[in-house]
Design goal:
Blueprint (H helix, E strand, L loop, with lengths): L9 H6 L10 H7 L10 H16 L6 H12 L7 H14 L3 H15 L4 H14 L2 H15 L4 H14 L4 H4 L3 H8 L4 H15 L3 H11 L7 H18 L11 H7 L5 H12 L6 H15 L4 H17 L1 H4 L3 H6 L6 H14 L5 H12 L4 H17 L4 H13 L4 H17 L4 H13 L4 H4 L7 H7 L2 H17 L4 H11 L5 H13 L17 H15 L1 H8 L18 H9 L2 H4 L6 E2 L3 E2 L7 E9 L3 E10 L4 E14 L4 E6 L1 E4 L5 E8 L8 E13 L12 E6 L3 E3 L5 E2 L6 H6 L6 E6 L7 H12 L2 E2 L12 E10 L3 E10 L7 E7 L12 H15 L9 H11 L7 H14 L2 H17 L16
Helix pairs in contact: 2-3, 3-5, 4-5, 5-7, 6-7, 7-9, 8-9, 9-12, 11-12, 12-14, 13-14, 14-15, 14-16, 15-16, 16-17, 16-18, 17-18, 18-21, 21-22, 21-23, 22-24, 23-24, 23-25, 24-25, 24-26, 25-26, 28-29, 29-30, 29-31, 30-31, 32-38, 32-39, 38-40, 39-40, 40-41
GO molecular function: structural molecule activity
Membrane topology: Peripheral membrane protein
Pfam families: Adaptin_N, Coatomer_g_Cpla, COP-gamma_platf
Length: 936
């Protein structure tokens, strides 16, 4: 029974796109490849399977050695088919599989047979495949056939041989250079592509000989080139010679300039455009030299072909940056392009007009641009905004109309980058044009009320900043506090009113806002504002300590100034030496190496990992440098043998167990004398944003030269040697930076609960709960917060609070709860969030948080606090004047500060007596562990 006809849904067909390769799997395709072994070959079926294999290869699918070999041997059986279409597919798959040297021999005879075939298509494709898969030894054997192919009468065969020569020039330059006579003959060919490829190959052969290149160009500029493509190539070579030679003519004319000018009258449009662009890009080009090129480009502006209009206006746009007056004659033609259907052409026309227009045409251009802006994408709008900014600086008297235009488009819909470009433009105009300051500030005030981008809100300066303290999020509130403080610094008359506003900010719910308000009040000289509140009558010792901090900073500015000038504080109050961080040094080192300078910003550098045992002949450790899509291994090598000099020191890295990594480059060490450390580098590429892991095998290779102990000179001859190093692993923790947070609970609760992930994991047998905590922390590579890295000896369960920064600057918080450890064994669980971790957290009252802030601040301040100072007296009073209850927290802080900053011997007697009482009341002092210091 016939099926009824069903009308297709046109709208649905438009929305859905179907691919003939949808759902293709490697395993299924490899099964289908067995058709290559059938006695009766089906050319159509075989071609379809080869197409699928090519699709998988081009999509990045990797084939194992066994799989690739099986497919290759099966494909070689298809040479027995006489089907032309199938034969072409066979050529393609062999070229993509790139067989090894052992397998090439099997197919070489078939390809050489095709290369001498009477069918030109077979000959051309066989040449392409052979040159792709053979090495230098086999190339020598077929060199004679390739020379004959270069001068073959069939242009397809000749072009295939020339293109193959271009590819082989990189790996076998000496052999290809012997083909100069044949290539020179091919340059005279009447076939366009043959002449084009022959000229490209001949130039590559002679590129290191300037005189030979100059002679080649000189001979060809006399009219021997017929191919438009070859003519374009010749124009580029001519431009390069002009740049290298400069103006050496006695008449003042540039060498070969007449040739470039004559190309402007060529019948091929591509040649005309290439010549015009070459003339406009000449160094120090004059207006007289530009005139013929500008005239030709002006004609292209009215061409019916969009590609010509685009090429012409883009070239004129570049010329307008350096020679705006030379382009003014084209303004009328470019104004008509503002309404062009191609938005790229219209955008280039607008920006060119803004660069070349005069002061009287600004108003007219603004009217045209207003209608134009609503029809283009944000990326084009940004280009227009940047051009308007330059125009305003060029014509400062027109700032009103330009500022109004920017203000109007600022209120319209748009993305973040677009709005940021507008805001930056207004700020630039305010900075460069004093008269525009008032209008610019008003425009920014209007914008900030409805701004949806927090980052842009923090960039604004406006009269009602204090409103932001009440109406906006924490980031904007912090920016508002900074701006208010700046007003207080710059305008003395405003200081009292600014102080009143800042006092209200010290009770903000956000730590950053409170800290900034406190800091600026201190700098403004209003420290008393920190404690002059309505609760003065019941002031706690905690707030007294907070006041003492500000007084202490203020009274020791000279001390801090000495430290900044290089004089380190001494005495009992001097801070302990901070560990030296090598991250900045690593970043400077890697950015100075050209091979790695383009990798972007360094995210993390690991601690050195030893790859050799102690007291061995050669000491090697490695530092793993993590970038967004690259990993660089820095091998720090030391030669411990006095009688040896190592040269050409390199590390061969086997990444067979790290499939997601591909080696990009290596930077060996030229020389490694005795006891002089050196570095070798190996760079790998990994997928962007993917935490790829794997194991790398390392082998140190070098040339050993004996050193005369008497003269210290090394022998000329050396012996190649290698030294096996330990394996190196990239683990998930390498993509995490252990960054702490000041308040874990607030940071946790500020995360989006939707990003929370809760799961359970078993850690296997462990000696203790503390060992399990350390294992989890090490595996995640995160920072323990609020002293949770310490586990009580009799604890049956424990909660660890961890924080870190994941690659891509993703904030990560973890709350890990573990238990069940009673002499070993048990489990450990953790709660996790992808962009940050949500959930609860340990809660402290407000005074406890303030105590932690006090400790953090005082530990940072490097001052000498000696007996008799105000702080010392206050600490003693705090210790002696404690009360049972919450104020034991105050005692704990005072005790911590006394241990850190004061003469410990002088207060030991006081402390011992009070400590007994502290432990009786079970005061929790672990909340105050900061930066590895504890109250003990």
């Amino acid at each position: 029974m016939a099926q009824p006809l069903v009308k297709k849904d046109d709208d649905l067909d438009d929305e859905l796109e179907f691919s003939p390769f949808m759902g293709i799997e490697k395993g299924a395709v490899l099964q289908e490849a067995r058709v290559f072994n059938d006695p009766q070959l089906d050319p159509r079926r075989c071609s379809q399977v080869i197409t699928k294999l090519l699709y998988l290869l081009n999509q990045g699918e990797s084939f194992t050695k066994v799989e690739a070999t099986e497919v290759f041997f099966s494909v070689t059986k298809l040479f027995q088919s006489k089907d032309t279409g199938l034969r072409r597919m066979v050529y393609l798959i062999i070229k993509e599989l790139s067989p090894g040297s052992d397998e090439v021999i099997i197919v070489t005879s078939s390809l050489m047979k095709d290369m001498n075939s009477k069918i030109d298509m077979y000959r051309a494709n066989a040449i392409r495949v052979l040159c792709r898969i053979i090495d230098g030894t086999l190339l020598t054997q077929i060199e004679r056939y390739l020379k004959q192919a270069i001068v073959d009468k069939n242009p397809v065969v000749s072009s295939a041989a020339l293109v193959s020569g271009l590819h082989m020039l990189k790996s076998n330059p000496e052999i290809v250079k012997r083909w100069s006579n044949e290539v020179q003959e091919a340059v005279q060919s009447r076939a366009a592509l043959v002449q084009f490829h022959a000229l490209a190959l001949l130039h590559q052969i002679r590129q290191n000989d300037r005189l030979a290149v100059s002679k080649l160009v000189g001979s060809l500029t006399k009219g021997a080139v017929r191919s438009p493509l070859a003519q374009c190539l010749l124009i580029r070579y001519t431009s390069q010679i002009i740049r290298d030679m400069g103006n050496h003519s006695q008449s003042g004319e540039r060498p070969f300039y007449d040739f470039l000018e004559s190309c402007l009258r060529h019948k091929a449009e591509m040649v005309i455009l290439e010549a015009a662009r070459a003339i406009t890009e000449l160094d120090g080009v004059s207006s007289r030299e530009l005139t013929p090129a500008i005239t030709v480009l002006q004609l292209f502006l009215s061409s019916p072909k969009p590609v010509l209009r685009f090429a012409a206006v883009r070239t004129l746009n570049k010329v307008a940056m350096t020679h705006p007056m030379a382009v003014t004659n084209c303004n009328i033609d470019m104004e008509s392009l503002i309404s062009d259907q191609n938005r790229s052409i219209a955008t280039l026309a607008i920006t060119t007009l803004l660069k070349t227009g005069n002061e009287s045409s600004v108003e007219r251009l603004m009217k045209q641009i207003t209608n134009f802006m609503s029809d283009i994408a944000d990326e084009f709008k940004i280009v227009v905004v940047e051009a308007i900014r330059s125009l305003c600086v060029k014509f400062p008297l027109k700032y009103r109309s330009l500022m109004n235009f920017l203000s109007n488009i600022l209120r319209e819909e748009g993305g973040f980058e677009y709005k940021r470009a507008i805001v930056d433009s207004i700020v630039t105009i305010i900075r460069d044009i004093p008269d525009a300051k008032e209008n610019g500030l008003l425009h920014l005030c209007e914008f900030i009320e409805d701004c949806e981008f927090t980052y842009l809100s923090t960039q604004q300066v406006y009269p009602y900043i204090y409103n932001r303290v009440h109406l906006e999020n924490a980031t904007v509130r912090a920016a508002a506090v900074c701006t208010l403080a700046k007003f207080g610094f710059m305008v003395e008359a405003l200081k009292p009113r600014i102080t009143v506003l800042l006092k209200r900010c010290i009770y903000d719910s956000d730590d950053e806002v409170r800290d900034r308000a406190t800091l600026f009040l201190s700098i403004l000289g209003n420290d008393d504002g920190l404690v002059e509140t309505d609760n003065d009558s019941r002031e706690s010792p905690l707030k007294k300590l907070l006041m003492l901090i500000m007084c202490l900073r203020k009274s020791n500015r000279s001390h801090c100034r000495e430290e900044s000038q290089g004089q380190k504080p001494t005495g009992l109050g001097a801070p302990p030496p901070a560990p030296v961080s090598g991250f900045d040094a690593y970043e400077r080192l890697l950015s100075s190496i050209p091979e790695f300078a383009t990798f972007g910003k360094l995210f993390k550098s690991s601690s050195p990992v030893e790859l050799t045992e102690a007291e061995t002949e050669y000491s090697v450790n490695v530092v793993k440098h993590i970038f967004g899509s690259h990993v660089v291994f820095q091998y720090n090598c030391t030669n411990t043998v006095p009688e040896q000099l190592l040269e050409r020191v390199n590390v061969i890295v086997d990444a067979s167990e790290a499939e997601e990594f591909s080696e990009l480059s290596s930077k060996p060490l030229n020389s490694l004398p005795y006891d002089s450390p050196g570095q070798a580098f190996v760079a790998f590429e990994k997928p962007e944003g993917v935490p790829a892991v794997g194991k790398f095998s390392n082998t140190l290779t070098f040339v050993v030269k004996e050193v005369d102990p008497n003269t210290g000179e090394a022998e000329e001859d050396g012996v190649e040697d290698e030294y096996q190093l330990e394996d190196l692993e990239i683990v998930p923790a390498d993509y995490m930076v252990n960054v702490g947070v000041s308040n874990f609970r607030n940071a946790w609760e500020s995360m989006d609960p939707e990003n929370e992930l809760v799961d359970e994991y078993g850690l296997g047998p462990r000696e203790s709960l503390g060992e399990a905590v350390k294992a989890v922390t090490d595996v995640l590579g995160m920072q323990s917060c609020e002293g949770t890295e310490t586990v009580a000896s009799n604890a049956r369960s424990h909660t660890s609070l961890l924080s870190g920064l994941y690659i891509g600057n993703v904030k990560v918080l973890v709350k890990a709860q573990g238990g069940g450890y009673n002499g070993g064994g048990g489990g450990y669980s953790r709660g996790r969030d992808g962009g940050g971790y949500g959930g609860g957290g340990r809660r402290y009252d407000e005074d406890t948080e303030m105590v932690a802030a006090v400790v953090d601040t005082l530990v940072v301040v490097a001052v000498d606090t000696v007996e008799g100072s105000d702080l010392y007296d206050e600490l003693v009073k705090a210790i002696k004047g404690k009360t049972v209850g919450r104020d034991h927290l105050i005692f704990g802080v005072a005790l911590h500060l006394a241990c850190t900053f004061c003469n410990v011997i002088m207060i030991v007697e006081i402390m011992v007596e009070e400590l007994v009482d502290v432990f009786k009341h079970k005061v929790m002092l672990k909340s105050y562990r900061r930066r590895g210091q504890t109250c003990s």
